[in-house]
Specification:
binds NADP nicotinamide-adenine-dinucleotide phosphate, 6-stranded parallel beta sheet, 10 helices, about 325 residues, Quinone Oxidoreductase, Chain A, domain 1, alpha/beta, about 30% helix, 16 strands, 7-stranded mixed beta sheet
């Protein structure tokens, strides 16, 4: 028997319930992992609210770290006692234990704590694919990254600095701007009171930036387009403020023959070799000290409701974990 956070309907945080479930033995290719730390991500709120539909009833959570308890048929790469982490599902990480496919997890390197791994897998892999695959950054580039004091955002600030990239970040308060600056953002704009496109033009000698990474979505979509140089790319990778809908593509011509992509980590690490290469880069960046996984909020698994309220209420900075 395992305690797990489950939903039977979509809605606000209160639809999450801590239940006791039967966890079957791990199937072929799977291992059972006893979680020690569970990563909290904004995508979990989309699954809970129905923005991203999942079959119901459902567990929640895509990211966790822990210890292998049992291996299923055909698993030769892992054994009981191994410390592992995963950051792209399967859905159901908000639980004391889960069955996961051995080829979709990473062994946690010795010096890395379980909590760091749980804080870093999904968010680190996201920054890595955005910076290396969606729009491959070069030293000397200047970019705009929204919500730079958040979980993904803080890793982006550090990774950009390591790459020699000038990151202009946005955040909703002066305190958050200061945090992101300490993490490596070259410039910060408080988008609750400043004119973001005007500031970006000022900071780029009137040029605009070649790429905007936007996890905020609806509230920032148009302003993001207005920050781009002609033929620039908007990577709109999240919906923290709501989903972007009803776009007239003509706006892309008017604003400079722009490109827009709506990428998802899932597609960038669908092949095992891509997942392994991405994860290796994340752990390498951690080992070099280029990035760190700052856990600023910890919640008991039973307090998932509060965790979601805080994340959606913009009260968190950096990463958050649930502790089973
Ligand atoms: N596509 C992918 O592959 C992928 C993978 C991972 C994450 N994501 C996306 O990346 C974004 C960041 O994820 P995260 O887990 O690291 O979350 P997070 O950045 O820690 O939290 C979201 C932040 O968005 C900002 N925000 C702006 N408007 C908001 C609003 N109306 N409601 C709530 N927040 C608002 C807040 O920062 P301020 O107060 O500073 O505005 C908030 O702290 C999310 O949109 C997530 O879905 C996408």
């Amino acid at each position: 028997m395992t305690k797990a956070v489950r939903i039977h309907e979509t809605g606000g945080p209160s639809v999450m319930q801590l239940e006791t479930i039967d966890l079957p033995d791990p199937g072929p290719g799977q291992v059972r992992v006893r979680h020690t730390a569970i990563g909290l991500n904004f995508i979990d709120t989309y699954h809970r609210s129905g923005v991203y539909p999942v079959p119901l009833p459902s567990g929640l959570g895509l990211e966790a770290a822990g210890i292998v308890e049992e291996t299923g048929e055909g698993v030769s790469t892992l054994k009981p006692g191994d410390r592992i982490a995963y950051g792209n599902g399967p859905i159901g990480a908000y639980a004391e234990a889960a069955n996961v496919f051995a080829n979709r997890v990473a062994k946690i390197p010795g010096p890395v704590s379980d909590e760091q791994a749980a804080a870093l897998m999904l968010k680190g892999m996201t920054v890595r694919y955005l910076f290396k695959d969606t729009y491959p950054l070069e030293p000397g580039d200047t970019i705009l990254f929204h919500a730079a004091a958040g979980g993904v955002g803080q890793i982006a600030c550090q990774w950009a600095k390591d790459l020699g990239v000038t990151l202009i970040g946005t955040a909703g308060s002066d305190e958050k701007c200061a945090i992101a600056r300490r993490k490596g953002a070259a410039h910060m704009i408080n988008y609750s009171r400043e004119d973001v496109p005007a500031r970006v033009r000022e900071l780029t000698g009137g040029q605009g930036v070649p790429v905007v990474y936007d996890g905020v979505g609806k509230a920032t979509f148009e302003m993001s387009l207005d920050c781009l140089a002609p033929r620039g790319l908007l990577a709109t990778f999240g919906n923290a403020s709501g989903t972007v809908t009803g776009v007239d593509l003509g706006i892309l011509t008017q604003k400079g023959s722009l490109y827009v992509t709506r990428p998802s980590l899932m597609h960038y690490v669908a092949r095992d070799e891509d997942l392994a290469a991405n994860t290796a880069d994340v752990f390498d960046a951690l080992a070099r000290g280029a990035i760190s996984a700052e856990v600023n909020q910890r919640y008991a698994l039973a307090d998932a409701v509060t965790a979601h309220e805080d994340l959606e209420g913009r009260r968190t900075t950096g990463a958050s974990v649930l502790v089973p």
